[in-house]
Specification:
Oligomer: single chain
Helix content: 25-40%
Number of helices: 35
Distance between the termini: 57 Å
Structural class: alpha/beta
Largest sheet: 8 strands, mixed
Shape: globular
Radius of gyration: 31 Å
């Protein structure tokens, strides 16, 4: 049964993809406007206010309007919307929705369209967002790159972004989502259309609507309690229904004791509204979903809230607010706030304090002690909310006019060159370590650095993205490529046949890849794009579609011709894909090997795939990071005391690398068996996972060394283990520039390594003890270390890293002086690096 379900789901996804591809091939309708609010859970907020403004505008009667609603909203607010002139509704995710999303000339959303959404060049997209943020968001949150991946994607796709104030523009768009210099949208700092609805509220009509919806209300003043959601993830919020009901009970009881008549109503955040409806004590107190929040704000006398952006809208009313704060400031310390002082009302940490503050607000309005702060925050956060923001948005978006208040601006950059690097799958390997070491150095050198990769929900990718310098912008790829199945079949056939130019020579394939770039990065432009992984056909093709002018570089971390036959899980799984990638090299401006010797070797061995410009940029050490990582404790294990505390006086060799044939751990085990026979207190630590682990364990048993050889799985950072050992041993047949050798040098550890082709460039100035690529060679190297004849390398890592960074900049950025370019012997003077 599960297989049947999976098959049906695949069929459903395929069918939706075909429908989407069809509608994206149809003309865009300039007179059609699509609205969506909070993933279709209603018709609310700024989109609803803009819709009303357009309906009422005499010069916009030619427009037709479509609301996207989820199933519940379709039943509740759908009939109301259908009665409006020129307005239809569609089920979010349906075929009709895909049609509207693909063909509407104007798109309006206060949150995000799905990951499959890709704005077509003929479409305008206004993202109005849903409030000025008081709590931290975007990249300012822990693991914000993951939580915000689709949000950033939408903001980059937008042609227009709505902002309530210059403070919101800077705090949210430029800082929290790091759009400065990246987003091409115009920012409309003209106020919030939804706030227009707070003025001129028909109180009698509002109360009648509430009573008809089952709310217990008379003529007494309304106290609105509107808390935000709590929890670690937006998709999994805490159920705080009981605490909400407790506070309402306490406030009402306190008001009764003081003889104050008022009705307390509750408007929970939409992501916890369903849970709130299950709390019996909130019956008759919950605001119905079809009552616009801002209409309710216009009719309420006092607002009680915690960290919700509803407070900002409320400031435009000039009425008192009571702030509900955590007694232990847990929310402020974990999620964090953008405003830490100058609050516009009393901050209460208990229900009793909240009740007393509400009573005082009903009696005397804004407390004297908070009036200056209220006025200052109002001027700062809602300077243009005068009841006419919707008209200003329509003037700019539909009349090509200039707003009579506020301004239109762009998110200009700070002048730093911008670089996008694709990091691969963020596996725990040398490529990831090389990237983690390089990125902070690039930021320190004055580059605006962005990295991209496929979003991972578990495994090493989750751990390793946390190792990326927090100053680096992370754009995680979510969702899949659009396009018809027939078109994707053609793409795969081209890859299978190694037709490396099909993605540009075929107009349909070129359109497919151009759309995928827009889907992932919107209108973002970079001065340079770098495929730092260099192994994925998908990413190698995609980065070639970065819009110009841009310099494109692809990294070669190894002897790439030898990698073709490298076994993964016992099979040469990369044979076809790598050969296709090799064919893409000539289309890149630079094919970058990680050492000069390697660049020469790769240029020679890959010449049959076309004339590429081969250059060299060594890997960086980032010694400060490595040394800091090395201080992390070695996890508890039966062998930890022997390695770390040396309770038995042992000497430890360590090898780090995936357990695959080219690393030749079998040679290492055979050599170590000889050395251990001569020096029984020696031990060997093998760090790395891979399909050869069972074979290598069996070999250790056969050699009689199973009790003195420790195998670990792959680790996220091997620095603590290398630091705890005595000598690094590298037994590889071929390598690029192994990160573990550089890191061992930074940690002051001696290195014994086989003489792979690029070993001369493995360490700046040499310093490793190089031996023949044989069992006997490794034996001699380990003996030399035990005899005291292998010293730790002496490397000026600061100077080395500085040279690496400058070489990187000269190589990948246009307009810089070229880096090192050694001649290729026997190639008629052709240059490789």
């Amino acid at each position: 049964m599960p297989s049947v379900v999976r098959h049906l789901r695949r069929v459903g996804r395929a069918a939706r993809a075909e429908v989407g591809a069809f509608w994206r091939s149809r003309p865009v309708d300039a007179d059609l406007v699509l609205y969506e609010s909070f993933a279709g859970n209603g018709a609310a907020g700024n989109p609803e206010a803009i819709w009303r403004e357009l309906l009422a505008a005499d010069d916009q009667q030619h427009l037709r309007h479509v609301w996207a609603l989820d199933a519940a909203a379709l039943r509740t607010v759908g009939p109301v919307l259908r009665r409006a002139r020129g307005t239809t509704v569609v089920l979010r995710g349906s075929n009709a929705y895909q049609r509207a999303l693909a063909t509407a000339g104007t798109l309006v959303n206060n949150a995000t369209f799905p990951p499959s959404f890709s704005r077509r060049p003929e479409q305008r997209y206004l993202n109005t967002w849903h409030g000025t943020p008081l709590k931290r968001m975007g990249f300012d949150e822990p693991d914000g790159a993951t939580a915000s991946a689709n949000t950033v994607r939408n903001l980059l796709a937008a042609t227009h972004l709505l902002s309530q104030s210059p403070w919101m523009t800077e705090t949210m768009y430029r800082r929290a989502y790091r759009l400065g210099g990246l987003a091409t949208a115009e920012v409309l700092e003209v106020g919030y259309p939804r706030v227009d609805r707070q003025t001129g509220v028909d109180d009698a009509r509002l109360r009648r609507h509430l009573r008809d919806s089952g709310v217990r209300i008379g003529t007494e003043p309304i106290v609105l309690y509107a808390p935000t959601w709590r929890g670690d993830r937006f998709a999994d919020p805490e159920d705080r229904s009981a605490p909400m009901a407790d506070l309402v009970d306490d406030v009402e009881a306190a008001l009764r004791r003081r003889g104050i008549a008022a009705t307390v109503l509750v408007k929970p955040h939409q992501v916890v509204a369903r849970a709130a409806r299950r709390e019996p004590r909130l019956d008759g107190r919950l605001v119905p979903e079809d009552v616009p929040v801002n209409v309710l704000l216009g009719g309420a006398a006092v607002l009680v809230s915690d960290y919700s952006s509803i407070i900002v809208d409320w400031l435009a009313t000039g009425k008192p607010v009571v702030l509900e704060a955590d007694p232990d400031h847990g929310y402020e310390d974990t999620r964090g706030l953008y405003l830490s002082d100058g609050w516009p009302g009393p901050r209460c940490t208990t229900a009793a304090e909240t009740a007393e503050a509400v009573a005082q607000a009903l009696d005397g309005g804004i407390p004297t002690a908070h009036r200056d702060a209220y006025a200052a925050m109002r001027a700062r956060l809602v300077p243009d909310d005068d009841g006419h923001a919707a008209r200003r948005v329509v003037d700019v978006l539909f009349r090509d006019g200039v707003p009579d208040r506020g301004r239109v601006r762009t998110l200009t950059g700070d002048g730093r060159p911008s670089v996008l690097l694709h990091l691969g799958a963020l596996r725990s390997n040398g490529i990831t370590t090389a990237a983690v070491n390089l990125l902070p150095l690039l930021v320190d050198a004055g580059l605006d650095v962005t990295v991209t990769y496929d979003q991972a929900v578990r495994g090493a990718g989750v751990v390793n993205r946390a190792r990326i310098d927090p100053r680096v912008r992370q754009l995680q790829r979510v969702g899949g490529m659009n396009g018809s199945k027939a078109l994707h079949l053609g793409r795969r056939v081209a890859e299978h046949r190694a037709q490396a130019r099909a993605h540009t020579d075929s107009p349909r394939l070129r359109g497919l890849w151009d759309e995928e770039w827009r889907r992932c990065f919107g209108g973002a432009h970079f001065d340079a794009v770098v495929d730092f992984s260099g192994y994925s056909p998908f990413w190698a093709e995609l980065l070639l579609h970065a819009p110009g002018p841009v310099r494109r570089s692809i990294w070669l971390h190894n002897e790439m011709a030898a990698e073709v036959d490298r076994e993964v899980d016992g099979k040469p799984r990369m044979r076809r894909s790598l050969r296709f990638v090799f064919g893409l090299y000539p289309q890149y401006d630079r094919a970058v090997s990680v050492s000069e010797t390697l660049a020469v070797h790769n240029a020679r061995s890959l010449a049959e795939y076309g004339s590429a410009t081969h250059v060299a940029v060594p890997n960086a050490v980032a010694a400060d990071r490595v040394r800091a990582a090395a201080t992390a404790p070695v996890p508890p294990s039966p062998w930890r005391a022997s390695l770390v505390d040396r309770v038995d006086g042992t000497t430890w060799f360590v090898a780090v690398g995936r357990l695959s044939p080219e690393k030749n751990h079998a040679r290492l085990l055979r050599a170590f068996a000889v050395v251990h026979g001569e020096a029984p207190r020696t031990r060997l630590l093998v760090v790395g996972g891979g399909f050869l682990l069972p074979t290598l364990r069996a070999l250790a048993v056969d050699l009689g060394i199973a009790d003195v050889v420790v195998f670990t799985d792959a680790v996220d950072d091997a620095a603590p283990l290398v630091a705890a050992a005595d000598c690094l041993v590298v037994s590889s047949d071929h390598e690029g520039q192994p990160m573990v050798i550089l890191e061992a040098a930074a940690l002051g550890k001696p290195v014994v390594t086989t003489a792979f082709a690029s070993v001369a460039d493995a360490l700046p100035g040499g310093g490793a003890h190089v031996v023949p690529v044989t069992d006997a060679g490794l034996v001699s190297g380990m003996r030399a270390f035990l005899d005291g004849r292998v010293a730790a390398p002496t490397v000026d890592v600061v100077a080395y890293d500085a040279d690496v960074v400058q070489t990187f900049i000269r190589t990948v950025l246009p307009g810089r002086t070229e880096g090192r370019r050694p001649a290729l012997p026997g190639t008629g003077g052709q240059e490789a690096a």
